[in-house]
Here is the input.
Amino acid sequence: MLTTLAVTLLAGATALHTPARPLGRRAVIGTAAAVSLLPVTAAFAADTEASIIAEIKEIRAKLDVPTINKLLETEQWDAVRSIFKAAPVNLAWEQTLAKKNPFKKLADLRDDVEQFEVVDELASAIQLADQYCYSNTFIYTQPGNGKVKIKEPKQQVAIAVQKIEGFLQPQ
Here is the structure.
């Protein structure tokens, strides 16, 4: 494949640099036709269900409930938030990365309307867990007697994991 690409590009470049005759229609069409015969690279290939499920399993592995619960109990808010903000977990809930959301891709691939609703519920659960951790960071510096919320982010992470498990069930 790489050899074919190199030969095609070399032929096209040779046609461009031939000073004796200008670049003609045949040279352009011939180069375009040769390039069109090349196989599509993996970067341009459509996502398969297996690759999307592998991505979802990776997100599920990162959202390890016992680990996150231990971090929450020791009030390590930044460590928990870094789990939510780092790839691949951030793909599941950050609005700026909505087109890369593997849950949305899988729901679209399966053409399942109910799973589209679950995508939003999953994103909300992770977003709320992140918001609770963010708010907990500033509890001690705010006036008044604010209360650290540990139970709530734990519940939201459990909800998110439950939604992920639903996606991993065979259809």
User: Anything to note?
Assistant: The radius of gyration is 25 Å.
